[in-house]
Structures are given as C-alpha cells and as structure tokens.
TrEMBL record:
<keyword id="KW-0238">DNA-binding</keyword>
<keyword id="KW-0804">Transcription</keyword>
<dbReference type="InterPro" id="IPR018060">
    <property type="entry name" value="HTH_AraC"/>
</dbReference>
<dbReference type="GO" id="GO:0043565">
    <property type="term" value="F:sequence-specific DNA binding"/>
</dbReference>
<dbReference type="Pfam" id="PF12833">
    <property type="entry name" value="HTH_18"/>
</dbReference>
<protein>
    <submittedName>
        <fullName>Transcriptional regulatory protein</fullName>
    </submittedName>
</protein>
<keyword id="KW-0678">Repressor</keyword>
<dbReference type="InterPro" id="IPR014710">
    <property type="entry name" value="RmlC-like_jellyroll"/>
</dbReference>
<dbReference type="InterPro" id="IPR011051">
    <property type="entry name" value="RmlC_Cupin_sf"/>
</dbReference>
<dbReference type="GO" id="GO:0003677">
    <property type="term" value="F:DNA binding"/>
</dbReference>
<keyword id="KW-0805">Transcription regulation</keyword>
<dbReference type="GO" id="GO:0003700">
    <property type="term" value="F:DNA-binding transcription factor activity"/>
</dbReference>
<feature type="domain" description="HTH araC/xylS-type">
    <location>
        <begin position="161"/>
        <end position="258"/>
    </location>
</feature>
<dbReference type="InterPro" id="IPR009057">
    <property type="entry name" value="Homeodomain-like_sf"/>
</dbReference>
<dbReference type="GO" id="GO:0006355">
    <property type="term" value="P:regulation of DNA-templated transcription"/>
</dbReference>
Length: 263
C-alpha cells in the first residue's frame, strides 16, 4: 500500500518562490510513500538520509539509496516512490544557477553537503544572510559529487514497454530473449538489436540492471539478502551476491555500508 508523501506546508508551490534554493524535509512513516507524476520549473535534488527512493522519468528509473541523491532537471516529468520509513529531503534549485547535467543522475552526497541540506531545511528564522551563505556553498559543492551508476534505461517503444512492465511486476521472471521474442512477435535477433538501440544495453545487462534497482530498493527498506535473492528468482544467495558484486564492485552489505560510511 502507498500513501501520498506529505510536505510540511500543504500550500507550498516551489515555482512561486524566487529563492534560489528551497529545501524541504519529508518523512515517510509506516507504509511506502509516493509523489505521482508531475513537473516543476525548478530543478530538484531528491536526497535520502534513510531508506530509499526510486525516481521515474520518461527515459528511465533512478535509484536513491541512503546518503545518495538524484538530480532531476527542471521541467522534466517525474514521480518518486519512497520505501517505508524513509527520511527524505527535497532540494529545489532555480534553473541555470548550478553546474549539473541536463539529464538525471544519481550522486553520492558528502558529509558536508548532507549537513548543508539538513541545516537549510531547519532554517525557519529571519537570518536570510545565513540562508544565502548555506545555499551558495551547497551550489558550489553539488557539481563535485561523484555519480553512481544506479539507472535503468526505459523506452517508449511499445514492445519494450510491455517487457519492462512485465519484469517490473515480476522481477523473478526468467524468460529468455528467445521466449520474449515470441511473445512480442519479433525474431530473437531483431529483439536483441531493438533492446540495444533503445537502451544502450544487451537484454541480459538490461534485466540485470533492473534487478540491481529492485535489490537496492528492497535492501534499503530492510529486506534480507536471502529474501531479495529469492524474490528476484536467483537459484542461490551466492549467485545473487556474485551478480551484485560484479556489477557494483562489492557484495550488498559492504556496498550499502560503504555509501553510508563514505557519505
């Protein structure tokens, strides 16, 4: 079950405010929280201090594990789905005042930047000079944050949308490329070329990336490695850990711990 994410101020319209940076704290209690499809003029940084968030844009899914953030450029349609008991911060930034890409990306967040974001959320007084100073340091530091490869490319091509929807609904689906080609009425070679052309990845690598996104989402929500391995249809926990380590350089527990420790 999902509930709408609740902002501290129900009347907040970030595009009506001229401040270069607006930071908002959003806590998710109990069940999963969601912000449905929307867009705004300002760019948005979605930062998770605890739990995780999956951001969906027309071109893909972006995972936000703890102590990471997703950058969403202004004007881009997107939705956010948070895990249970997530601790989130939404930072809205005026267009063209920060040197960040014109596309989505997942960023590691340094301890300094984390504290700046938290402090900006807590600024409710009249010390505007201090707010401006904190915001200027944040804008200076953001472009220095390293990019994490936690992205699943998506396509608007109808046959790939059908496959993506089925795999998102049941990530343990192990149908082969040949089986999928019959299901969408394409030859196996044609489907293989279509996947590469639309996503930049082979079918196997694309499905593996989906597994990584799902695994990180569930692990940050508190699921065990054994549970996630079974949910994704791996024959053994060892096989799942091997896949995860090969893709991200570390086994699940060490990877998540390293994000928190290095942040």
């Amino acid at each position: 079950m999902r509930q709408p994410l609740r902002f501290p101020w129900s009347s907040l319209d970030v595009d009506d405010r001229s401040a270069p940076v607006i930071a908002v704290r959003v806590d998710v209690t109990g069940t999963k929280g969601e912000v449905p499809d929307h867009s705004h003029r300002k760019g948005q940084l979605v930062f998770a201090l605890g739990g995780g968030v999956t951001c969906r844009v027309p071109s893909g899914l972006w995972m936000v594990p703890p102590h990471c953030a997703v950058w969403i450029p202004g004007g881009m349609q997107h939705s956010n789905l948070a895990t249970e008991n997530a601790r989130l911060f939404f930072v809205y930034i005026e267009p063209d005042i920060v040197d960040l890409p014109g596309r989505c990306c997942t960023l590691s967040i340094s301890p300094l930047l984390r504290e700046l974001i938290v402090e900006l959320c807590d600024q409710v007084g009249d010390d505007l000079a201090r707010v401006d100073l904190l915001a200027s340091v944040l804008l200076r530091e953001l472009p220095r944050m390293p990019v994490q490869q936690l992205h699943l490319p998506l396509s608007s091509e109808p046959r790939l949308k059908r496959i993506a929807a089925a795999l998102a609904k049941d990530p343990s689906d192990r149908r082969t490329l040949a089986e999928w080609s019959k299901r969408v009425a394409l030859s196996e070679s044609s489907l293989a070329r279509l996947v590469v052309r639309e996503t930049g990845l082979s079918f196997g690598r694309w499905r593996q990336q989906l597994h990584l996104i799902v695994a990180l989402r569930e692990l940050t929500a508190g699921a065990s490695v054994q549970q996630v391995s079974a949910d994704l249809g791996y024959e053994s926990v060892a096989a799942f850990i091997t896949m995860f380590k090969k893709a991200l350089g570390k086994p699940p527990a060490k990877y998540l711990n390293s994000i928190v420790r290095d942040a």
